[in-house]
Specification:
Elements: H1 3-23, H2 26-29, H3 32-55, E1 56-57, E2 60-61, H4 65-78, H5 83-99
């Protein structure tokens, strides 16, 4: 398949999804279930992206320094540390594990 055909098809599909969202009646968006799902969906997508980036290498599952950094970030989040400290802990642990050959 030609790359430009794929790009064009993707652009049209994105436009169609956006148009479909605009055509949804306002009453449907006011339902409590829809509001809860709309609030949780970005969190779920970000968690899935983070897991895919941390535990996958192509088509294989890996546990390397990225997983250790993610664990350090999770611990600092549980301890309610500020965001910059969470990022710093993840970076330091990831770099430390890689420096040790992990």
């Amino acid at each position: 398949m030609n790359t430009w055909i794929a790009i064009g098809a993707t652009a049209l599909a994105c436009y169609a999804v956006k148009l479909a969202g605009l055509l949804v009646p306002a009453g449907a968006l006011e339902k409590p279930l829809v509001r809860r799902l709309a609030a949780l969906l970005p969190v779920a997508l970000l968690a899935a992206l983070t897991a895919q980036q941390a535990f996958a290498d192509g088509r294989t599952l890996v546990l390397d320094a990225r997983a250790a950094g993610l664990g350090a970030a999770a611990v600092t989040l549980i301890l309610r540390a500020p965001f910059l400290l969470v990022v710093a802990a993840a970076v330091l642990v990831t770099a430390g594990v890689r420096a040790m050959g992990g």
